[in-house]
Design brief:
The protein is built from four helices and 13 strands. It is of the alpha/beta class.
Length: 173
């Protein structure tokens, strides 16, 4: 029974968690111009996989900061889970909400976990400004493509940019 339980735990929890962490680590190593005091959001990382908590990616900042700093070799990073935007105010979710200044957007990197537990760098931050209307902000990894304009974008327009866009959550708590 013990061996069967251990095997089930490995298959159900630790193997998928390892896949996700390896993918996040690969994206961390490839971040453009990562520097001291940059901000990293490990977005959509599951809080647990199977029955196991996903500590390295979601225990912010206690284990996520050392994980990111050891992976990249850059000290002084601020690592959180999700970005929230309400009434033009931004916050990074740690174990509590950490308020961000408007100028912080250009120091933010977003690594987004997708359905198969792989990770992808997002280069644009979308904040909802009205029902169905979003403003786009370039993040640190934004290279100028796709081109964006300072205007409100519709949900359909965001869908066309889906590979680049991270949609900020709405409610600051």
């Amino acid at each position: 029974w013990c061996a069967a339980t251990a095997l089930a735990e490995i298959r159900q929890c630790w193997t998928p968690e390892s896949k996700n962490l390896r993918s996040i680590a690969q994206q961390l190593r490839g971040l453009a111009d990562l520097r001291y005091h940059d901000i990293i959001a490990l977005a959509h990382a599951p809080l647990q996989i199977g029955t196991a908590p996903h500590f390295a990616a979601t225990s912010c900042p206690y284990s996520s900061v050392p994980f990111a700093e050891m992976t990249t070799g850059v000290a002084g990073l601020l690592v959180g889970r999700e970005i929230f935007c309400e009434d033009g105010r931004l916050a990074l979710q740690l174990n509590e909400m950490h308020q961000l200044a408007p100028g912080d957007v250009r120091r933010i990197h977003v690594i987004d976990t997708v359905g198969d537990l792989s990770a992808k760098v997002r280069t644009l931050l979308a904040c909802q400004v009205a029902p169905g209307a979003y403003e786009l902000y370039p993040l640190k990894d934004y290279t100028g493509s796709p081109p964006i304009a300072p205007r409100a974008y519709s949900h359909d327009e965001l869908q066309a940019l889906a590979d680049s866009v991270y949609l900020a959550h709405r409610h600051l708590r």
